[in-house]
Amino acid sequence: MTEKVKLLHHVEAINWNRIQDDKDVDVWNRLVNNFWLPEKVPLSNDVQSWNTLTPAEQQLTMRVFTGLTLLDTIQGTVGAVSLIPDALTPHEEAVYTNIAFMESVHAKSYSSIFSTLASTKEIDEAFRWSTENENLQKKAQIVMDYYQGDDPLKRKVASTLLESFLFYSGFYLPMYWSSRAKLTNTADLIRLIIRDEAVHGYYIGYKFQKGLEKVSEEKRQEIKDYTFELLFELYENEVQYTHDLYDGVGLAEDVKKFLHYNANKALMNLGYEAMFPASVTDVNPAILSALSPNADENHDFFSGSGSSYVIGKAVNTEDEDWDF
Amino acid sequence: MAAPAAQRNHVALPTHAAQRVEVSPPAGPQKETGLVPTGSQLIYFSSSSENTSRFVAKLGREVARIPLYAKDAPLLATRPYVLVVPTYGGTGGEGSVPKQVIRFLNNPQNRQLLRGVIGAGNTNFGDNYCMAGDIIAAKCQVPHLYRFELMGTPEDVTRVNQGLDTFWTRLSQTQK
């Protein structure tokens, strides 16, 4: 079927010296500072490690990465682009073009991993799997449908859930390998993607909340109901997808905790309270620490035993110390 | 004030005509020199995303907010306090501490009364998760009391409230 492409009717020269929303500048700068390319990551150092994986583990890894490639491709060519006509400011439009480009970098970086580690035949087989796996295709279809719908707020919800939730069934695996000192360079590359997705989810979620401020209470309730319905629909599918991928290696239950944890963060990016209780978000500490080395409780004064900690006396720092 | 771009025509967005311009609110009665004293024992910074602000609201404590804009009158702490500071993540080091928080801590009295830091952030930022809290804790030699993500979960709220109660009790027993 053919659809009319939605474009802006009218564009004026963007003036970065007239800012309506400081967040646009902050996020633009953050994204530019975070810019990276896969060519800078020494993936070839993982070849030896790759060869220590069993054929089944290798196949799982390839499949996970083609699944991620599909999501990044959607977000780069449809998702981020579909948000441009709804932008509240011209600078927001520019930020989406940055996001769209980075998603294409992400999508391409999986191909860098593939060409470093696998044969053409294995690569082709993994891509074929990605077109044939029902649950992967379904998740792509659900999101694509919302991008083509006519509600700007719903598009932002779908986009934030993609950035902050749908990637994580895939991101789990490289964090798992990294926690076992395998494919560590690949994990470094994935961490760069994970960092970018956090900024994307944060920003789109922020713009969603700005948009929500302008609508009636009734509409707000409708959008909230819609958000939770969509999350449930995607969640059920993610669970199936997780079993498809991870049952063979016995990791599905562990992955699901990671899904719950990230679903909560996706909701928070949209300004909603976390939904999954702590009892099902207790992510394996090894995975959490592969994600962020100081995320574990031992780094907190409150959470630790506390008794061994000497309470510091405030030191009078000099003014110059704060000139940074 | 309103940028000319505000008149632009965006497609299919009837609600978008009047919604722009997030320009800083006009400066209040205080001039730049006027400090606003606060006896709050929890002082926080939050950007317009309001994540940290939502978290501290859930604590139900008396709080004071570090102003977002340079033209707003700066805060002056008058009692020992804990600072809640978010990290907007990324490349770490320089730029991790929001400039508004640097401005606040540039006041020697505010530094002197600081007793601890609570960091907000996102584990997606890896090594830089809650980096601003780490930097301030190291520079001021106070403990980094707790870390939470985005606007915090119910468990974070409980732990921080309990932790702060214990912290202030212990502090009142050991100091003075």
UniProtKB/TrEMBL annotation, chain A:
Its cofactor is Fe cation. Pfam families: Ribonuc_red_sm. Binds 2 iron ions per subunit. It comes from the Bacteria. The keyword Metal-binding applies. PROSITE patterns: RIBORED_SMALL. Its EC number is 1.17.4.1. Keywords: Deoxyribonucleotide synthesis, Iron, Metal-binding, Oxidoreductase. SUPFAM superfamilies: Ferritin-like. It catalyses: a 2'-deoxyribonucleoside 5'-diphosphate + [thioredoxin]-disulfide + H2O = a ribonucleoside 5'-diphosphate + [thioredoxin]-dithiol. It is an enzyme of class 1 (oxidoreductase). Coiled coil: none annotated. InterPro entries: Ferritin-like_SF (IPR009078), RNR-like (IPR012348), RNR_NrdF-like (IPR026494), RNR_small (IPR033909), RNR_small_AS (IPR030475), RNR_small_fam (IPR000358). The keyword Amino-acid biosynthesis does not apply. Gene3D superfamilies: Ribonucleotide Reductase, subunit A. Tetramer of two alpha and two beta subunits. Provides the precursors necessary for DNA synthesis. Catalyzes the biosynthesis of deoxyribonucleotides from the corresponding ribonucleotides. Belongs to the ribonucleoside diphosphate reductase small chain family. This is Ribonucleoside-diphosphate reductase subunit beta.
Automatic annotation (TrEMBL), chain B:
InterPro entries: Flavoprotein-like_sf (IPR029039), RNR_Ib_NrdI_bac (IPR020852), RNR_NrdI (IPR004465). Residues 1-35 are annotated as: Disordered. Pfam families: Flavodoxin_NdrI. Belongs to the NrdI family. Probably involved in ribonucleotide reductase function. HAMAP family: NrdI. This is Protein NrdI. The gene is nrdI.
